[in-house]
Write a structure and sequence with these properties.
Layout lengths: L6 E3 L4 E2 L2 E2 L3 E3 L3 H18 L8 H17 L2 H13 L32 H14 L7 H13 L12 H17 L3 H17 E2 L4 E2 L21 H17 L7 H16 L24 H15 L5 H19 L29 H14 L3 H6 L2 E2 L6 E4 L6 E6 L7 E5 L4 E5 L5 E3 L6 E7 L2 E7 L1
Antiparallel strand pairs: 1-4, 2-3, 5-6, 7-8, 8-9, 9-12, 10-11, 10-13, 13-14
Length: about 475
């Protein structure tokens, strides 16, 4: 392996009649983090945090929080913190509970509508980050989430999640609220609401979801008479299931149910991936709206990688699809300036005649990209390959890594020139002479750094 950790996935799998060639992820972990930084810096530079807490903006922040988790870049956390403060840590603004609604709506009364609740995911994450950093958390961060969700689970209604998107918007809120409060009712209602969604949107034969009850076959079909399964809609569900399994207690009685649903979706999805790595906007009818689409693809790639990383999906079976998805995301969807292209605009279905190009981007699409890229950095092969990178016969080792006060450098053929350490923005923060094989890093802030040695780049985590 030269200069990069190479995940060689040699497989010839047949997806919908298309033979896929062997798939390779050639990025090191440091390179994936650099791509995260490129995409996220571009987005945050060109989009102010002072935007509403509605679903599309909030979906970006769920990806931003994952980017923060794997990079330690405080700029990312601050951006979400400022957004949350701008929105006063609430979603919809109505205080009179008798006026709270959960049908579709963008006004202040739609407090119980999931598109106004996804913001709670990030609010809770920011609250938990304070605790992890030994900072006394501000109860304001979770006050509205506790009020709204605490009220909702005491109502007899079960039809809150009537559209596929809502499963991503709110399912993770339920498990996060459970972890926050220990209230079992959150998990009971999670299952109850999910079962209702299943009853109106789930196709038991295909094992994927319609966008909502209005798209169920045969009452609704594509132009050619086929079942119409929206890519992004299923992406919301699949990614939402991964997030639920991440937080759902191992001994929860409903866990086998959610695991089975997640695995069955994964099995169905890899069969309908396109040769270029993306998933078509109408999953089983590419002619309905031909061409590339990034948001659904990113959610699927994230979900597959999460399952591989956590032992739910067999690597030999599912990594080829995840690799194809990542190759599409990193080499086609990502533009030279860091923009994420080919994102279908806000909608609810694959729209015949709608043209999507490299200039089509959106907050939720960037958030989905960040989810996928962040999860990729956790792939064990990538993680192990960033601490020891081989260049021909000259392996270079940084140890310990992560480190607190100092690190040592070992290079088989010696070190030429100086050793430089930069933050993820590219700013050099430390430079030492080649003969200094033990480097004092006690003065660096906690986070992720890139170390250049002998024209090789390695990642260093300062704790």
């Amino acid at each position: 392996m030269k200069n990069k950790t190479i995940l060689a996935i040699i497989a010839a799998l047949c997806f919908s009649g298309t033979v896929l060639k062997s798939q390779t992820i050639t990025n090191t972990k440091a390179e994936v983090i650099a791509l995260i930084n490129k995409a996220n810096t571009y987005w945050q530079t060109n989009n102010a945090y002072s935007q509403s807490s509605f679903w599309d903006k909030a979906a970006y922040h769920t990806g931003n929080m994952e980017a923060y988790a794997v990079t330690g870049n405080e700029t990312y956390r601050t951006y979400s913190e400022n957004w949350a403060k701008y929105n006063n840590w609430i979603g919809a603004t109505q205080t009179n509970k008798s006026r709270w609604k959960y049908s579709y709506g963008e006004g202040g009364d739609y407090v119980l509508f999931g598109d106004n609740q996804i913001c709670f995911q990030t609010y809770i994450d920011l609250y938990n980050i304070d605790i992890a950093n030994n900072v006394t958390p501000n109860p304001t961060k979770i006050a509205r989430a506790t009020e709204v969700m605490g009220y909702q689970i005491t109502t007899p209604n079960k039809d809150y999640w009537w559209w596929a998107d809502g499963l991503y918007m709110v399912m993770p809120v339920m498990t996060k609220m459970y972890k926050l409060t220990g209230n079992q009712l959150y998990l009971d209602k999670l299952y109850e609401y999910f079962c209702y969604a299943d009853s109106i949107m789930y196709d038991k034969t295909e094992q994927i979801y319609y966008r909502d009850g209005g798209y169920v076959y045969p009452a609704h079909t594509t132009l050619s008479g086929k079942k119409d399964f929206w890519s992004r809609g299923n992406g919301w569900v699949f990614a939402g299931l991964a997030k639920v399994l991440k937080d759902l207690p191992q001994n929860n009685v409903r866990r086998p149910f959610f695991e089975e649903r997640y695995k069955n979706m994964a099995k169905a999805l890899i069969k309908i991936q396109q040769a270029e790595g993306y998933w078509s906007r109408s999953l089983q009818d590419t002619a309905q709206a031909p061409g590339r689409e990034t948001s659904g693809t990113a959610f699927f790639t994230y979900g597959l990688l999460w399952g591989i990383n956590n032992g739910y999906l067999d690597k030999a079976t599912y990594l080829p699809a995840a690799a194809k998805g990542w190759t599409y995301l990193s080499t086609i969807a990502m533009q030279a300036n860091g923009s994420i292209g080919y994102v279908q605009p806000i909608g609810s279905a694959a729209v015949p005649g709608q043209i999507i190009t490299a200039t089509n981007t959106a907050n939720f699409g960037v958030g989905a990209f960040l989810l996928a890229a962040s999860e990729l950095t956790r792939l064990p092969e990538l993680a192990s390959g960033t601490n020891v990178i081989k260049a021909d016969s000259d392996p270079i080792t940084i140890y310990p890594n992560p480190a607190t006060n100092s690190v040592s450098i070992k290079a088989q053929s010696g070190i030429n020139g100086e050793i430089t350490i930069s933050d993820l923005s590219g700013k050099q923060v430390l430079s030492v002479k080649a003969q200094d094989t033990k480097i004092d890093i006690s003065g660096l802030s906690k986070g992720v750094y890139l170390v250049r040695i002998n024209n090789q780049m390695l990642k260093l985590i300062k704790e």
